[in-house]
Input
Amino acid sequence: MSKQLISQSREEFREILLTWFKKHKRELPWRGIDDPYQIWVSEIMLQQTQVKKVVGYYERFIDRFPDIYHLAEANLQDVLKVWEGLGYYARARNFHKAARIIVEDFNGVVPNEYKPFRKLPGVGDYTAAAVQSIAYNSTYAAVDGNIKRVLARLFMMETPINDAKSAKLFQQKADELLDLDEPGAFNQAMMELGATVCRPQSPTCLVCPVNTFCQAFQANRQDEFPRRLKKEKIPEHNMVAGVIYKGNEVLIVQRPLDGLLGGLWEFPNGRIAEGETAEQACIRNITESVNLSVTKMKYLTRVRHAFTHFKIVLDVFECNYHSGEVKLNGPIQADWVKLNALQDYPLPRATHKFLDKLIL
Output
C-alpha cells in the first residue's frame, strides 16, 4: 500500500482503529477514568514496564496515595516502599517532587496545558502527550515503544527504532495520523494495537484491524520491522555485600537520592577489585563505606541481577561487628535494625533475592 494512499485514507484508518479499540480494549483500572492524577500515575508506571506487572502496583499506589495531596504530603521513603520492586525508581522520586510543585504552585490541579506540565520533574514528551490527551483531550500524539513499532510497520520505516535521531520522524508520523476529535482514545488505541496485536515477535497480523493499511503486511515483510541498531554486549560486574550483625541487629545504608536505586536501603556493598578475593573485597568495602571492622566472615550466597544496561553477580557474606563508629563514605544514612524490621524499608530487588537466607 503506497504512502500516498495511506495519507488519503487517514480518516478511514482512524475510524477502524477506534472502533476496534472500543470493542476489544483490555479492562484496566486506569481506563474509563477522567482523573488526571490517576492517569498520570498509570503512565509513569507503564514506562518500560509491562501492563501485567503495573496493575497491582497501580492499585496499591492509588489506595495509599489517592490524590495529589496525599502524595505531596507523603515521606519519600513511604513512596519508594510502595514502588518497591517496580524498578526505575527515579520515576517515583520525580513524581513525588512534581506532586509537591503542583500543590504549591498550581493549587493541587494538574496543569491542563502541555508546556507547564512538560516542565515538571520526570515528565518527558511521551508522558506529557499521553496525560494531556487522555485527561484533557488535548491534541498531542503520544509516541512510545509500542506506537513506534506500529508506525515502523505501517510505513516500512528504515530508520532504526532505537536511534535517538529517529524520534522526530516517528513523532511526525504519529502527528499525521492522530485523530483530532478523539486524541486520547486514539493514542490509547495505537498503544493497545502495539501491545496486543502488533507485537515485537509473532505479530498477529491476520486479525489486525488495520492490516490493509500496513505496508509491511502487504509486502509480507512485517518481521523485518522495526529496524534496530545493534546493541553492545551488556557488561557484567562482580560485587560483594556484607550483612553485619551487632547483637540482634544488622546494618543497612541508604543510597544517595540521585542515581541508580536512589533512596533505597541495602547492605554495605561494592565491586571486587582486580586481584581480590570476594571475602577481601567485602571487608574492604565495609571499611571504606561505613568505617567498621568486622570479624567471623561467612559466605552466605550468590545472586544474579540484571539492570537495563548491566548485570551484577553479587556474593553475599555474613559477619560480626568488631569495632569502629559508623562514618559514611557514599551512603547518606545508616541504621542498625532488627531483621524483621527490614520489611519497613524500601530495598532493591537484588537484596530481596537473599533475604530469606539470613539468620533470623
The domain at 236-357 is CATH 3.90.79.10 (Nucleoside Triphosphate Pyrophosphohydrolase).
